[in-house]
Automatic annotation (TrEMBL):
<dbReference type="InterPro" id="IPR006680">
    <property type="entry name" value="Amidohydro-rel"/>
</dbReference>
<dbReference type="InterPro" id="IPR052350">
    <property type="entry name" value="Metallo-dep_Lactonases"/>
</dbReference>
<dbReference type="InterPro" id="IPR032466">
    <property type="entry name" value="Metal_Hydrolase"/>
</dbReference>
<protein>
    <submittedName>
        <fullName>Amidohydrolase family protein</fullName>
    </submittedName>
</protein>
<feature type="domain" description="Amidohydrolase-related">
    <location>
        <begin position="4"/>
        <end position="276"/>
    </location>
</feature>
<dbReference type="Pfam" id="PF04909">
    <property type="entry name" value="Amidohydro_2"/>
</dbReference>
<comment type="similarity">
    <text>Belongs to the metallo-dependent hydrolases superfamily.</text>
</comment>
């Protein structure tokens, strides 16, 4: 079976624009590059991945384009753009051009912003219009504080393809469930919203066992179904709690438990469809020529 990792990162702290790393675990405060992941990904049987931004700069997006040229497994890049810039349309056009077919969407780091209502600001309407008009996607990096604003954005842009990163970061470590599932119930009613089965193990506190994620995963399958969920490793953030292959096996086991027979969708087809990846799943996952699919 072809497997696509819908969410992984690379970063190089020496570049100087990963401010959030200063508060991250020490183990993450180093470079994580293609040479660090290649063997692990191969051993796990993962064929392709979507490379997601980790710094709030357009310079880092260009850096990811460069890294993607070194890593044949990277099928797409989700970048960053200044969504409040007056020339946001021109900035998006430039990144599309410079990505030469790699750029598939954008992700502002909304979870780190002081204003929990930032996503719903009318000043962002133009940026969302441009993303939608260009056929790109939007990754929502939010926690429960921003879910109300995300819901308002969904209502304002009902045609925008949005994916909820890390299931909206439920408070698994605290055992809180009701508030999160109530928001998921409302969000999932918007058919354009997808969700990533990613980042859940890193939400566990000590000494909470990884089995604690199961009711949350069950709830995700209940609300989104296997057709709107896509697996992601969230590597290297994952490394603080588990190795790459272990999380893949945990996610596969849970998928089989709650949506038997749907692994091909959750672990490849949904990501290929959502991000319009140049991967032919009917032909053993052969990559198409990116130069013919520039967006």
């Amino acid at each position: 079976m072809i497997i696509v990792d819908a969410h992984q990162h690379y970063w190089q702290p020496a570049r100087g624009d990963y401010s959030w790393l200063a508060q991250a675990p020490v183990s993450l405060q180093r470079a994580f590059l293609p040479t660090d992941l290649r063997a692990q990904r191969k051993a796990a049987g993962v064929h392709y991945s979507v490379l997601v931004q980790a710094a709030a700069t357009e310079e880092e997006t260009h850096y990811l384009f460069e890294l993607a040229q070194e890593d044949d497994a990277v099928a797409a890049v989700v970048g960053w753009v200044d969504m409040e810039a007056g020339d946001v349309g021109a900035r998006i056009d430039a990144l599309i051009r410079d990505g030469r077919g790699l750029l598939r969407g954008f992700r502002p780091m909304a979870q780190d912003l002081a204003d929990p209502d930032w996503l719903a600001r009318p000043s962002l309407d133009r940026a969302f219009d441009c993303i939608q008009d260009c056929g790109l996607t939007f990754d929502a990096l939010v926690d429960m504080r921003q879910l109300p604003a995300l819901l308002r954005r969904l209502r304002r842009h009902p045609q925008l393809n949005i994916v909820l990163d890390h299931a909206g970061k439920p408070a698994i470590g605290d055992g809180r469930f009701d508030q999160w599932t109530s928001w998921i119930d409302e969000l999932a009613q918007h058919s354009q919203l997808h969700c990533k089965l990613s980042g859940l193990l890193t939400l566990l506190g000590e000494p909470v066992h990884e089995d604690a994620i199961e009711p949350y995963v069950a709830d995700l399958f209940s609300h989104f179904g296997p057709e709107r969920l896509m697996w992601g490793s969230d590597w290297p953030v994952l490394t603080t709690h588990a190795d790459y292959e272990h999380w893949l096996h945990v996610a596969m086991s849970l998928t089989e438990r709650y949506a038997a027979g749907s692994q091909a969708e959750v672990f490849a087809a949904n990501a290929v469809r959502f991000y319009a990846l140049d991967i032919d799943l009917q032909n053993q996952g052969v990559r198409r020529d990116l130069t013919h699919h520039a967006m």
